[in-house]
Amino acid sequence: MHRHRFLRPLGLLLLLLGLLPVGGIVAAAETATQPEPLLVLNYHDVRDDVAPHGDPDQFAISTQNFIGHLDWLNAQGYHPVSLQQVIDASAGRAKLPSKPVLLTFDDGLRSVYSKVFPLLRAYNYPALVAVITAWVDLPQGQTVQFSRPMGHDDFVTWEQLREMQDSGLVEVASHTDNMHQGLLANPQGNQRPAAVTLLYDSANGKYEDEDAYRARIGADLARSRDKIKQHLGRAPRSLVWPYGAENGVANDTSKELGMTATFDLEGRTTWLDHGLEGLGRMLITNNPTAADLAVDLRRDLRLDGIRAVQVDLDSVYDADPQQQSRNIDALIERIKQIGPNYVFLQAFADPDGNGSADALYFPNSYLPMRADLFSFVAWQLQTRAQTQVYAWLPVLGFELPDADKRRELGIANADSKDVYRLDFTKPEARKIIEGIYDEMAASSSFQGLLFHDDAFLRDNELPSLGNDPAKRTQALIDFTLDLRNTAEHWRSKLKTVRNLYARTVIDPASEAWFAQRLDTFNRYYDYTALMAMPWLEGSGDRPWSWMQHLAKMVGEHDPKFDKTIFELQTVDWNSRKPIADKTLLEQARKLKAMGVRHLAWYPDDFIANRPRLETAREIISSRGFPYPLRR
Questions:
Q1: Counted domains in the chain
Q2: Same domain, yes or no, for 431 and 576?
Q3: How far is CA 269 from CA 17, 252, 576, in A?
Q4: Nearest-CA neighbor of 458 among 409, 398, 416, 430?
Q5: In terms of residue numbers, what domain contains 152?
Q6: Can you give the pTM of this predicted structure?
Q7: Which pLDDT tens digit goes with each residue over 79-120?
Q8: Which of 35, 43, 321, 327 is the most buried if burial means most Cβ atoms within 10 Å?
Q9: Among residues 283, 296, 251, which one has the least CA distance to residue 40?
């Protein structure tokens, strides 16, 4: 099949935002007959004088609104639980009550003692208080920066922590000793959370290796654990990661030090049948009332639609650093103006447009690094444009610089017209690809993976896999899931999206030519990015009738369109002309009328403003879809 250069990953929940669970009076709770997910709510400062809107500290909540939360939770039948109850439920020793909620308070601010603790006693609610031990020990005269500089008297004392612990209502957790800060993460100067960042040494242009990283975070966590044990007589059993940023290496280190329950800010609820690592929490921000909390907790996240822009870093890269900087600014500003909730960001360099990686945009041991660019742009998109970023990377298409290795490890008898692909059944090739995914995850921050369209097999390729199309499809799926697991060593809870050729939906027998199948993909991946591209498929003379037929075929496998992203093409690669905005709008409106929920497009020309910003907003903006943002 003729290959064109197309389809990059769909592109957070930002490290500073998350979702949680809620509870009620434990003594009055009835044991649920069936397990329920645990809701964890995350609070920070509680003050009397928080502005109803626009307070300088977005993480503060007024005392009045906090009391409203406690009353609402009780009235709605939520049951606040202790960490011990959570541990027992996870171990199968007991069941949690119905609608369980764990209340957590981060940073060890003085208000957790002066405002929160009296209310916990009044309601008889248990809670988890996570302290940054270096801040508890902050000397008089020194400050740390919040919405304002905060000093020793703004944080709890060890005596206050002991009093709260002795009440039986409060368990003290580690929030690290001094990792609630950013570290230099790349040559461009990004600061990323210390607990998950390989420190970049600007003096020698090198990154911290895994051994040094493990030693650094291990020393910090050990200091925190030892201080808590020294002052409170009890070592912490749980760790709350600063900014919710955690990974497999960090969690393993925490467990080795006895802190087996860890918390992040990914997700609203957590099922306890998978252990206590990376429990999700709901971050309380912008001083919500009880009514606001009710809206947030009752919101059905399954109704959220995907609006994704797929971005070429090849279009951002420029040998002139000043021009490259202007390109980055243009991209970020356009994404901010459009407002998608995902960006699928190219992590590989494909300057010749043949669909395989000639180089990579991150430091690695296998291919040339065209520029150390992916980490920087991904972080800018997350923090400045407030979008989730999915790393778009080939599955097999890596052109090794050694020509002999390319021949040795490539798929034998592959058609020269097809994209070059490594033979993943060969141990050396598999190790190379896994190493690339590992090193990308180690160097960058992202929320998911978009597996490129190079992941296909012809029916005459890799005969060792047998002739059964379903088994060949499954072999490629299993390999991509191994790659996800490899990346999760550094980036926990990664979501997955896999490109799919439209022909496999229109003609299911073509699974034999591609080793791809929609219903199988939708079982194993979070989403399938279907290349809904009529001009690519030779149907540009009747694009809507082709698209309509495709959508009807998808509906037979995914009737609610829950898992399938329709990825539109914005350029006719045959004529090299952009698709008219009017045509794109018509396609999007008709697809939505048919029930299609998830839309993306590729490519996005952020330099020439194509598609035009007004069109992009109407089709790809996620703002207000399906719910308006709370003001």
A1: 2
A2: yes
A3: 14, 22, 47
A4: 416
A5: 26-178+233-284
A6: 0.91
A7: 999 999 999 999 999 999 999 999 999 999 999 999 999 999
A8: 43
A9: 283
